């Protein structure tokens, strides 16, 4: 039981460390993004629509709008968080296929991006 509590505490602490920059003064979070195009239900209860400008983030509240900027080509798009993920290591956001197209990352599958919260 104690080990479980310690693990949960560590997960919470690590989450705070990684998410603090995104919440503090709307500073950018930088990492890798990927895209997905399913038709399943999202964690928010919506059906995934690959043509909508939406995304999955591990902890931002549903409905949060985030500007995602592709650091390789400078293209950006504003997406609405409606799902949880990504669940692949090293990634900070999964965007819809429509958002990936605007970011110019369809063929590569992933891109280094910055995230900035939009109010």
TrEMBL record:
Pfam families: DPBB_1
EC number: 4.2.2.-
Leading EC class: lyase
Keywords of the record: Cell wall biogenesis/degradation, Lipoprotein, Lyase, Signal
An individual GO BP term: peptidoglycan metabolic process
Gene3D superfamilies per record: RlpA-like domain
Transcription regulation in keyword set: no
Record domain RlpA-like protein double-psi beta-barrel: where: 29-114
Cleavable signal peptide: 1-27
SUPFAM superfamilies: Barwin-like endoglucanases
InterPro entries (alphabetical): RlpA, RlpA-like_DPBB, RlpA-like_sf, RplA
Gene Ontology molecular function, alphabetical: lytic endotransglycosylase activity
Function: Lytic transglycosylase with a strong preference for naked glycan strands that lack stem peptides.
Sequence similarity: Belongs to the RlpA family.
Name of the protein this chain belongs to: Endolytic peptidoglycan transglycosylase RlpA
Species in which this protein is naturally found: Methyloceanibacter caenitepidi
Gene from which this protein is expressed: rlpA
């Amino acid at each position: 039981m104690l080990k479980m509590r310690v693990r949960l505490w560590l997960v919470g602490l690590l989450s705070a460390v990684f998410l603090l920059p995104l919440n503090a003064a709307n500073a950018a979070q930088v990492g890798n993004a990927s895209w997905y195009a399913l038709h399943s239900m999202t964690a928010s209860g919506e059906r995934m629509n690959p043509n909508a400008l939406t995304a999955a983030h591990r902890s931002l509240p549903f409905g949060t709008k985030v500007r995602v900027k592709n650091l390789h080509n400078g293209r950006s798009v504003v997406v609405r968080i409606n799902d949880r993920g990504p669940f692949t290591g090293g990634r900070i956001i999964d965007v819809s296929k429509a958002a990936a197209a605007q970011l110019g990352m369809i063929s590569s599958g992933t891109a280094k991006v910055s995230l900035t919260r939009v109010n």
